[in-house]
User: What shape does this take?
Amino acid sequence: MAQIRIENVRKEFGAFTAVQGSTFTVEDGEFFMLLGPSGCGKTTTLRMMAGLELPTSGCIYLGGEEVGQKPASQRDIAFVFQMFALYPHMNVRRNMAYPLVSQGMPRADVRAKVEEVARILGIVDILDRPVGGLSAGDRQRVALGRAIVREPKCFLMDEPLGALDAEFREHMAGELRALHDRMGATTVYVTHDQIEAMQMGDRIVVMNHGVVEQFGRPQEIYDWPATMFVAGFIGSPAMNFLPFEGVAAPGASSLRIGEVEIGIPDLREGARGRLALGVRPEHIRLDDAAPYRARVAATEYLGTTQIVTLDTAHGAVKARLASTEPIAVGATTGLRLDARTLSVFEAERGRALASAANEKVLRHG
Ligand code: ATP
Assistant: This one.
């Protein structure tokens, strides 16, 4: 059992608070992503799970046991960093064997274990090569192998693919996920790359300024962001916001924005004042008959789709449309928004109002 639970974990470095009371659970066998911009506290959270950093307050449970104040050596966890630190004077086999040899495992067992893991990683043919001349991908596989041979309860990975170029990174991301599916060990993976998080993760925690903004399955977070930060961070182009002053009444199934009434999923809670309607670019259709008016400002051809920038009374929005759709820059048209897909935010606090569509996935911090 390798469930990891973080409960009200806070980390202060002097007067600066890097992690502000996080609570979430990584289930046994999950591939779990810690996602957020640089400096948001991802690495600090991961280092506290590993025991490389001790929390200022709060509890960390590993397999049900409280380990928050235990050092790394007393936790059954393997840490994989972005920079694959291999021992340059040893060949691949000896690099992978190192953790087992230092534990005092008999030679024959070490050999069998290293070869078994090398088979899983597809690196049997390079076992006797020096690590010096290896490609970046092979070096990363060796580093992973060295973590895997120990059979830890869980893997903690800090941007392990960060040093690879984009194409190879995507390939290794697929390999890592496939490896996880074969081995089933709980994995926590830090990244600032929303696409990597969406592709690989069973679940994602989104952090910002040391605060957990939301956690959930990739599609939940994409479809129903709990905050304007998450809405803007995930998706490219990001979710559009139509800001307006008004009233969102509990139970309402439409909002009045300027002169126009726009249908929304039934609200479960209300707010008044500064609000924002959130709409994903792919949920906008152009329809000359639609009452919410816009002017086409620009188009950007992307192959199968095009990104169309539209000026509205509430600012510019981007729509993702089929590139076969003829669009004339300068033309005036109407926006048709799919009511079932819209989010409503309380703009002051930047949080989504609960609605019939999103109430099950909203977990505010
Ligand atoms: P990155 O991807 O840039 O590493 P991150 O989300 O992983 O970002 P952290 O490395 O956890 O962020 O850092 C969070 C904040 O805590 C940053 O502002 C960082 O400068 C600060 N910080 C981290 N470690 C220390 C330390 N040992 N002493 C002081 N401040 C620290």
DSSP finds eight helices and 21 strands in the chain.
